[in-house]
Amino acid sequence: MNGQDNSRTTKTGQSSANSRSVLVHLGWPLLCERLAEHLRTPMARSLLQAEVAAELAQKKYEPDAAPVLRRTSEPAQVRTLLAEQDGLQALLAVQASLARESGAPGNLADALGALTDISDAVVRASRGAMLLPAELLAVLRQLQAVKLCVDLHAAVTAERGYASDPGVLTLATRVGELQPQRDLATALGRSIAPDGPEGEPWVVDGASPGLQKARQRVRELKASLMKAAGRLVKQTGVAEVLQDSYYTEREGRIVLPVRADAFTRRGSLTGIIHDSSATGQTLFVEPSELIEENNSLRAAQMQAAAEERRVLEQLSRSVGQAAAALRSNQAQLIAIDAIHARLRFADAYHGLAPEVGAARASEDEEAMGRFELIGARHPMMVLSGVEVVPNDIVLEVGSALVISGPNAGGKTVALKTLGLCALMAQAGLRLPTRRPARLPLVRAIVTDVGDDQSIAANLSTFSAHMQHVCAALAAAQVEHGGTLVLLDEIAVGTDPEQGAALAEAILLALTEHGATVVTTTHYERLKLLAQRFPGRFVNASVGFDLEKLVPTFRLLIGVPGPSSALTVARRLGLPEPVLQVAQGLMDEGRLRVDQLLQEVVAERDRLISTRQAVDRERAELRRRHQEVAKREAAALEQAKSRKQKAYDAASAELRALHAEVAELRKSVRKAEKEGKIDAALGAAKEGLQAGREQLAERREPAPKAPGEPPAQLSPGDRVKVVSLGKEGEVLAVKGERAVVQVEALKTTVPLSELRSLRAPTRTRAKVKPDVAAPIHRWEVPEAMPSTASKHFGESATAIEVGIDNSVDVRGARADDALRAIDRFLDEAMQKDREVVVVIHGHGTGALRKAVREYLAEQPFIHRTRPGMQAEGGEGVTVVWVQP
Description:
The protein is α/β, with parallel strands linked by helices. 50% of the residues lie in helices and 15% in strands.
C-alpha cells in the first residue's frame, strides 16, 4: 500500500502512531486478512502480507510486482481498479457459459491456484543453470495460465455486447501485457509431466527421440535382468543359501539376500557384497552370473540420464532466453489474481462498485461534494455472519454529522462503517451498499475510536483523545475538504460541562477548515448545533424500541437521539430503587426532553417499519404480477404450440388424402382403360367407408350439448350451432338436416346440433331452399378479398412471380408434376398465400391441360386464369387459393 495518508502525516505533523491507529481502529488489517483468503497465488498472499505490515510499521514498501491492495486518492486509478473487476466479471460469465456448453478452455481460479513463484528459477536459468523438472513444470503452469487468460479474453470480446464493454476494454490493457511464449509452452508441455514414476514431476519419454530410445533400452535390459534373477533364485544350489526366495535392488543393481554363514562356505554362491541387514545375518550379494547384465543396465541408465540432462539443459536455455517475459507474466498474473480476489471478496458481502470522485477540485476533475451510502452495512460484520441492519449515511463534504442515542445502539458501528468504506473505496473495492455508493476519495483520515490510554506512554484517556484531535486539526488545515475525521465520544474523560464546550469548539474548528466530521456524543449542547448552524451540522440518532427496551441499530438522519441512560440501565438489570433515586436527581425539564426524544425516535422507527412493510408488499405484488405475466405468456405459447401441432396434423392428413385421391384417380383411369371401372369404384367406396369408420373410432365423443333440439324449424329462425359454438340463421330444412348461414359461410348440420334462439326482430324475405350440402361442407361466398381479387377479372393486374409464390414443374411427368403442385398448394395454405403461380411451360400442351384440370377439381381453388404476358403467358397458370 502506498500509505497516502502516511505522506500526509508528515506534512501535517500527525504522529505515526495515529496513522497506524486509523487502520487498527477501522479494522483494515482484519479486512485484508479476509481478502487474502480469496487470493489464489502464494506470491499475492505474501505480497499483501508485506504491504499491510509495512503500512502498519509506517515503512515505505516498493515491491517488484504491482501492489495487491494499495490505496490511492486518485479517482482515475480507482476507477481503473473497479473497471478491471467489471471486465473480469464478464470474463468469468463467459467462462461459465462455455463450461455449460462443454467448450470452456479452462478454469481461471484453478489456473491461478496452480501457480508458484518462478522468480529464482528464471534468474538461475538466465545465468545458464539447469532447472529441475519441478521448476520447469512451474514455468509451464504459468504459461498455461497466461494462455487461458488470453483465450478467455478473446472469447469475451467475441461475445455480442461485451466487445465494447468499458470493463472488458480496461482489462484488455492488462491482458495485452501477457506474453504466451507459445513455442516454449509447447516444448515444455511435450517434455514435462507432473506425475512421474515416483509421483514427482519428470521428463517424459517423448521429450526427445534419443531419450525415448534410451529408456526403452533400460526397460528391456531391466526386464531381461529380472528374468535372469528369477531363474537364479530357483536354481539348485542357490536357493539353499538364500535367506528368502526373492531378489531386490541395492545401489541400482540387482542383488540376492544370501545367508551370511552360507556365503562364506567354499563352493557356495559367489559375487559382490553391496550391503547387509541390520543384524548382519543377511548379505545382499550381486551374483557373478548377473554382473555383466547389471553393468549393461547401468550403462543404459547412464545414457538415459545423460539424454535427460541434455533435454533439461535445452529447456532451461529456452527459459533463460524468455526470462524477462516470464517475470513480466508473473507480475501481471499476480495483478489478475488480485482483481479476482477483489471480485470474489465483494461477492461474499454482495458489494457494488461505487462512484468515486475527487475530494478537492483540480484542473482535471471537479470535487465530489457528498458522501452517499444507501443501505450501507459494516463489511466485517456481514462476513462474520452477523445480521446487520443496513443504514443510509448521507453527508455533505465539509459538514459534521452528530450521532446521538443510547449506548450499544450502533453509533460507533455507523461511524466505523463510513470510515472503512472510505478505505475500501481508496483500494478499489466494491462497497456493501444497497445501491452504488457515491463518495469522494479523501486524502487524509483521522480517527479517535476507543480508549488509547497508555501507562507506558504516560497517556490518560483524555490525553489520548486530545492527541487524535490535534492530528485531526492539523490535517484539516492542510487538506481541508480532503480530510475525514471520525470521533467516537468526542472530548470525554473530563468534566462533562468543560468537555461539552471543548467538543463544540473542536467541531466548529474542524468544519471551519472544511473537514468532513462524523462524531458520536451524549452532550446535549452538540445536539443543538444543527439548529444554530443548519447545513453545517446535521443530527442523527440510533433508534430504540421503547416497548421491547432494545436498540433497533437503525440510523435516523435529521433527528437527535436521547441517551436513554436510565432505560438502558433498567434493561441491564440495575435495581429499581437506584433508578428512582437517579430519576429524582435529574432536572425535570431535561428528563421531559429525553422522554419526548424517545417518543419521536420510536414514532419514526414505527414509520420506517411501516414503510418497509409497504415496500415489501409492493415488491411482492410486483413479483406476483411478473409471475402471472410469465404464466400467461407460457399458456399463450402452449396454446400456440397446440394450435400449430393441430394444424400440422391436419395438413399431414390433408396431404395423405390428396395422395390417396391421386392414387384413386390413377387407378380409375387405369380401370377405365381396362374396362374395370365398376370394380375400381367399388374399391374406392370401400376405402372411403373404411377411412370414415377409422376416423370415427379415433374421434373423441363430443359432450352432450345442453338443451334440446328444436321440435320445428323454419327458414329464418335463429339457432345456435352447438358443434361450432356460433349463432346462425336457418336457410333451409330438409329431413334431419338444415342449411344454416353462420356469419359469411353456409353449412349443413344435423338438427340434433341446433338449439333454438329468439327470432330476429327484422323481417326477412323468404329464401329459396338450397339442396342439402354434404355434412360440414363449407360454401365460400362470392365476395372476393381485395388483396387477391385485384389479380383477377377484366382489370386484373399482373403478379410478380418469385421463388416463394411459384412452383416450376416444366419437364416433369404429369403424375410427378401434380404431386409437386399438391405439396406446393398445401404449403401455400399453411403460409396464407392467396395467389400463387404454377409454371408448366408451353410444350405440347398436355402438361398444361393436366394441371388446369387438376386445379379445377380442387375444392380449395377459388379461381384460375392463364398468365399475362409479363407473368409468362400460357406457360403459367395463376391460382387463387381459398381454403
